[in-house]
Amino acid sequence: MTGQSIPGALFIGEYWESAAVTFLFVLGGYLEARTLARTRSALKDLLALAPVEVVVRREGDEVTVAPHEVEPGETVIVRPGGRIGVDGSILGGRAAIDESAITGEPIPAEKQEADSVFAGTVSHDGYLEIRAEGVGADTTLARIIQRVEEAQEAKAPTQRFIERFAAWYTPAIIVMALGAYALTRDAPLALTLLVIACPGALVISTPISVIAGIGRSARGGILIKGGEYLETAGRIRAVAFDKTGTLTQGRPEVMTVTPLAGIPALSAAENTQPRQRLLHWAALAESGSEHPLGRAVERALPADYAGPRADDFETAAGGGISARWRGRRVEIGRPDWLGERVDEWPDAAAAALEDIRERGETVAAVAVDGALVGLLGFADRIRPEAVEALKALRATGVKRLVMLTGDHAASARRIARELGIEEVQAGLLPEQKLEAIETLQRESGTTAMVGDGINDAPALATADIGIAMGAAGTDVAIESADVALMADDLGKIAEAVGMARATLNNIRQNVVIALLTVAGLLAGVFANEVHMAGGMFIHQVSVLVVVVNGMRLMRARPLRQRSALAAGRLAPAA
Ligand SMILES: Nc1ncnc2c1ncn2[C@@H]1O[C@H](COP(=O)(O)OP(=O)(O)OP(=O)(O)O)[C@@H](O)[C@H]1O
Ligand SMILES: [Zn+2]
To answer: To 5 degrees, how large is the angle CA 10–CA 12–CA 13?
Structure first.
């Protein structure tokens, strides 16, 4: 960018000056390249986690191969202290696994048979046999690396603005230099102007901060899709949360089982209590469902209960499930949704519903062939880290926290009170969540939505920032969320916002440094105080100051430790 000065200096016969300028130019370029490379090496740290070899069992023998040579379905063996080379599930053994490479969580996770493991994580103690499911480029680690690479390339709005500015500014400087020459016939002055006004520091001010911010976040298990989202995340004013699985553990338990009089048995042979009959019908209706309430019904039944499965079913997002079985229609869902699908709603049911709601439980009603047969009440616990995590989020400057839920108001308020969330919008259908987000945007500005992405997809897409939690292992979340938190940890939201704010500040500082330097130098040239070599030197120094300032983001205190501290899971280091 400053290359034009060398022939320029030669032309005016200032040989010493031309040598000095050449030296500074080469040195500056070298330092700039080196620092940028170091910033990107945050990514190399991640790459270094990919193990070089993997032990697989083939025809009874243990063979050592490269990670991408493992076939999905093969058994991989990991010894204590070994790095896991594939994504997969544990076939045998148990171990404490350090997943910090993926999730940023410093505390090892205890894992055993049937649990999922990720390439790049380390088994601390136990011996493990793992069924390979994702290998080579098809692992969470590989996806993270790819995402971060893409994100660091994507331009932030400020950067695009600055590039437009530079496109206009550079010709303006040339015109100014020509004008200065025309007026003064002073070639050194004109050339000095040309050289020092070049917007080098300004052009790298934003990318250096964005690359550092995204790299630093990735090391803490926070994937930010690009500079644009980093900038937007730094401006978040309101955060909306889905309830189940986001603010709560997403593992509800059946607390209340209220069958109504005359509930039929599943079959003539079934000789059971009404309470069990109700659970059996509910389990049949939920047999094809992924919904947390469906899993809760399953857990409420004895482990050896193997009831019939629905022949066919249909889910109504935010409403419930309608299943078909041997010509019968079995339905479970929100009382108001089911209310429209049954012939009558007896007084006994209304009273039972009131009862369950008063306890703050989530209610699902069950109907068979259009007749209401009973009600179920569920309770879910808030996440252990939730209270601290929301406090930390408020501390970053996000003043408005809102719960958006399809559950009814009494249950939602019980959870909200425990969490210290004042604003609750209950009984929402997926499209009403979307409208609620639009209202938040109008009233408060930049709005983020945190959700599971199943029936919150429209709201997540409408929000300025869609945040997915516990994204490790779910490639859809990694691909679609604007911010994907690898760990299933609410504390990461405050970290992400904090990091984004730090990056925004850093960008602003860099822009100010760059502009002040150019303005100061221009004034100096006109006052005849600054000459080419000196001006060139100061200009090059300003580029380095900007680079070093951006690099500070990389060294931001370990985010993961701060969040663990905030969640009360780590004692502060003495
Ligand atoms: N499969 C199902 N089984 C039972 N009830 C269901 C089912 N699907 C939906 N419901 C009912 O609809 C309500 C809202 O459903 P859903 O979980 O889809 O919405 P949500 O807004 O994501 O809720 P939350 O805020 O609790 O996550 C539930 O509280 C429940 O009463
Ligand atoms: Zn939900």
So the answer is: 65
